[in-house]
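In keeping with the milestone schedule agreed at the kick-off meeting, the structural modelling team has produced records for the first pair of proteins. Each record is given below as a sequence line and a structure-token line. The laboratory manager (R.T.) confirmed that both were archived under the project's standard naming scheme.
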Amino acid sequence: MFAYADDIESASVEVPTFAVKGVEAELTPRKVVVEMLSEATGVREGLTPDPVGLTGLVDAARASVRELPAENREDMLVALLGRLTLLDLVRPSRDLLEHILSGLISCLLVYREHAEETAGDDLPDEDDASAPFLISVKQHAPASREQLLR
């Protein structure tokens, strides 16, 4: 879904996808966040992240680079392999919040696109089209509060 949103408008894909996959793997949202922040802090302090996870990052970087034009591959591979963690090492908490916000905006983009496809010419203006999405999020948030704080 995040990659689909990125096709609509530039959006964060890796961090929101990682967070959702962690929750799908039955980790609490808090555990997912703590793991991401701990990894970034550890790398900043000179520790190497999980070697098994590192090989996955290298494989994913190489796969992404294969899709680029040949003249851009080397520079992009160096840039991708230079990151040992998903978050900015200097400001991991703020970076995580920015990625989460981008993930929420991605959900809204996909919702709006779906609304446009189903409503056709009867689609209200952008603010009105987002209203059901925002209402749903606001209704769901209190029910999920305890889960988010675990």
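The second protein of the pair:
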Amino acid sequence: MLDLLEGKRNRRTTNPMVASKPIPFPPEPATWPAVQATRFALDRADHREGRRGAFLKTLDAVGLGFDS
């Protein structure tokens, strides 16, 4: 890594896998709806004085709960 940062050329830094930039990947499409649903549910619970809806209760039941 330091050789790459300093621009040193050697066998490792000229390896095509190391020298080429990776293909940019978008955020995983399957996670985006879940993140948005969680954000919405937390915001809704905040507006309902902490009362959680079914979605947040389900997350709590499986150990993925969030404190709003």
